[in-house]
Amino acid sequence: MNPRRTVFYLSDRTGITAEVLGKTLLTQFPTVEFRKRVIPFIDTPDKANATLEEINGTARQESQRPIVISTLINDEVRWIIEKSDALCLDLFEGFIGKLEGELGLQSSHALGLTHGIGNATAYERRMGAVNYALGHDDGISASHYTEADVILIGVSRSGKTPTCLYLAMQYGILAANCPLTADDFDRMALPKGLVPHRARLYGLTISAERLTKIRNERRPNSQYAAIETCRSEIRAAEDLFQRLNIPYIDTSTMSIEEIAVTVLHKTGMASKL
Amino acid sequence: MNPRRTVFYLSDRTGITAEVLGKTLLTQFPTVEFRKRVIPFIDTPDKANATLEEINGTARQESQRPIVISTLINDEVRWIIEKSDALCLDLFEGFIGKLEGELGLQSSHALGLTHGIGNATAYERRMGAVNYALGHDDGISASHYTEADVILIGVSRSGKTPTCLYLAMQYGILAANCPLTADDFDRMALPKGLVPHRARLYGLTISAERLTKIRNERRPNSQYAAIETCRSEIRAAEDLFQRLNIPYIDTSTMSIEEIAVTVLHKTGMASKL
User: Fold this and answer.
1) Which pick of A117, A150, A198, B81 has the fewest CB atoms within 10 Å?
2) ipTM above 0.95, yes or no
3) Architecture of domain A4-103
4) pLDDT per residue as tens digits for the range B23-75
């Protein structure tokens, strides 16, 4: 039987940072079955005390201490949580002191700057980018391609749409996307609307095996999903990328986060963020 | 003049965790101007050595040591980076040792589990949820509301669409959304398609001041964006929520991340993730 352990993700605010941090750490222990409990918005001593009791209750019930992964900026709240019968790993406790020493400054102890609205301009840019991605998905409208930071192209279901949304939401990148279809492959040329924007095109490709699987979920046993269709479309798309010198990546084993970061770095957009 | 400092975000993989971690830490020093340099996919000693030289070059040029925030799982790569003339804050260095002690296990040192495809089922659930959100945005289709985990309702531009996309992308939640319009307010009743799904509705409201600002960016000086229109629509929407006992939150000062986490927790969906 695998060992089990309860993990508490605690935060003054959303808890998103604590969860990202914790996930990265805990994936390093694949044999342990972690039971997750997320408690966000612990911003008063009362809430901290209620959480403390829940942690201690879990410790008693399971006869082993839980793991607490937290981003608690409020000292008073953190001191209460640290009294719990748990292994407490706090992001601030661990690193803020070192940064204060290095910078010769006190930290501001301000809450909610990371996943709050924070910098309003940056936030509005991200929301604008989400609207842009929605309005320029799947070749819907070529009218504002001049505004695009990047235009993803590739066969249907190669990962263009979710990658655009991720680039928009996380980085405020104006990302459009346009499918390559049979008509383009017959002519072995780009869709007309894309020609003036060639420098901002980025290709996504994928293995035929993965594509047929994804397409079959959408339209089972269709010509669209057949392995032969997938193979010939992918071959034509890659030929087109190579012939026109359009950079491209194989997304077969990549998550949208990995595709997004790779595109950001290969295009040089990352250095402008 | 504000102090300036260069920050390197380094990772074996995407660097997303390092950046989230770093942002949270650095927002605590608002008077410092941080120049950011992200280097992902440092997965060989050669790449580590090239990065080391860049860090040391920056230290010489700026006559002060940079800050390195990293998630380096590969020990060899991390040891190289740690030799640099920088304040090195590594997530693994700091926490993995404590977890190994607590769990009585060695960490697996496996790369790329957090933002990679990782658990294929969970990844496909998230991608399916993104498609669902796109297909059930803005009341487009009421045909699959029975599958929805949650249906966000509110006046136009209250934050429904980006929140649904965020819930889908990060958590694999099936989130639909439907606008409340003049017709609904005249009848003071829900859109017909929503009536059978009342238990899964969640309302978003917003201040008239913020709404008029957002709408004016979209359609400047329109009746749609006028403060009076915003005020009366919001009042009617809130009346409807209260009359029908539909839970709702005010999104005026919240980011989509905060709205998403709040909805997750208030609806109890968080405990099922």
Assistant:
1) A198
2) no
3) 3-Layer(aba) Sandwich (3.40)
4) 888 988 988 999 999 999 999 999 999 999 999 999 999 999 999 999 898 88
Q: Which tokens in the block code for residue A172? A: 């405020």
- Cβ pair B206, B175 in contact under 8 A: no
B132 to chain A nearest CA, in Å? 12
pTM of the model: 0.85
Nearest to A253 among B26, B98, B117 (CB): B117
Name, in order, each residue with C-beta under 8 angstroms of A259's C-beta and a sequence gap of 6 or more.
Answer: A159, A163, A204, A249, A251
The confidence score (pLDDT) of residue B112 equals 54
Cα separation values, A151 from A129, A137, A247, A250, B135, Å: 13, 10, 12, 16, 22
Closest partner CB to B29 (pick from A20, A107, A254): A107
d(CA A126, CA A123): 5
Is A20's CB within 8 Å of B71's CB?
no
Q: What is the DSSP letter of A143?
A: T
Fold of B120-272: Rossmann fold (3.40.50)
So where are chain B's domains? 4-103, 120-272
Cα–Cα distance, A40 to A136 (Å, whole number): 35
The 10s digit of each residue's pLDDT in B206-218 is: 999 999 999 998 8
Q: Cβ contact (<8 Å) for A73 and B118?
A: no
- Percentage of chain A with pLDDT > 70? 95
Of B26, B87, B96, Cβ closest to residue A25: B96
